[in-house]
Amino acid sequence: xxxxxxxxxxxxxxxxxxxxxxxxxxxxxxxxxxxxxxxxxxxxxxxxxxxxxxxxxxxxxxxxxxxxxxxxxxxxxxxxxxxxxxxxxxxxxxxxxxxxxxxxxxxxxxxxxxxxxxxxxxxxxxxxxxxxxxxxxxxxxxxxxxxxxxxxxxxxxxxxxxxxxxxxxxxxxxxxxxxxxxxxxxxxxxxxxxxxxxxxxxxxxxxxxxxxxxxxxxxxxxxxxxxxxxxxxxxxxxxxxxxxxxxxxxxxxxxxxxxxxxxxxxxxxxxxxxxxxxxxxxxxxxxxxxxxxxxxxxxxxxxxxxxxxxxxxxxxxxxxxxxxxxxxxxxxxxxxxxxxxxxxxxxxxxxxxxxxxxxxxxxxxxxxxxxxxxxxxxxxxxxx
Length: 384
Known about the structure:
With 384 residues, the chain is α/β, with parallel strands linked by helices. The chain has 15 helices and 14 strands. The longest helix is centred in the last third of the chain and has 19 residues, at 280-298. 45% of the residues are buried.
């Protein structure tokens, strides 16, 4: 019988769960990103002390607005919550009685317009607030007139996924904002992972967005963090409708389930500050150097070829600044090889794309690089 005191065990081990080597990248169901050591150490003081959460959210929002050159900002629990709370703010505004009735909003403007070419799964998050989806345009084209014709008195907002901007013949954000601005309909932009290059963060408001939603994990913040940038009146409406409004306000508002703790709030703010001042050129150079070293160690392995590639946050493998090792194996197809690596000890989670395995070094601890190499040698049949 194992007599080791349970207090000495890794918390994962106490639960019987296995830590994995995350070679896939920044994914919600792998825990997002790791906080920088300097941020992690600063959070110890936060954990050991108390604060009024409404005051902390107001202050951190002001700081983020300053950093991002926006009128206002609010930390929320991730980009999906930002979409839900942002659309709720567009429907209810600062009307507490209406906010209390969400998502049951009969009689209120609750139409949510999206271009047909922008169909994507996170639109579901906007519907949580009681919005009714209205698609405009065709699969391959949306005209300004089609958009304008859809913006009647029943419409509360337009949802614009920034990563699909201009795709499939859709109108780009600047054109959407111009049409919407003429009739006073707010544009909510989902920019979840578009925080690099850092200039992107403020670009969406410059292009005419009224609210912009970001996820913190993509700037190495907490998996459960994110923030909204936008018009002051809409951010104030988010404030009224979030969990603090429910607890300390007059109304039982829509956003009570989207609760935040003080550590997540400050981890989000500190990670964003760190991201905006980071030497990103050095960061990419470090990724490339690690990939090159892994390639050198795999160069003579029979049945294995490798390449230095960029693995984008929308899961494309491209030429460009290097952050990933792409591997092809003669013995196994990518899905089988990925399964074998995931079933090993320790489990290695990578991404099969087309005929390659992708290992994203951004989420691999440098001390684990040699484990990737040794396991690749083994699954290739090249270990001796």
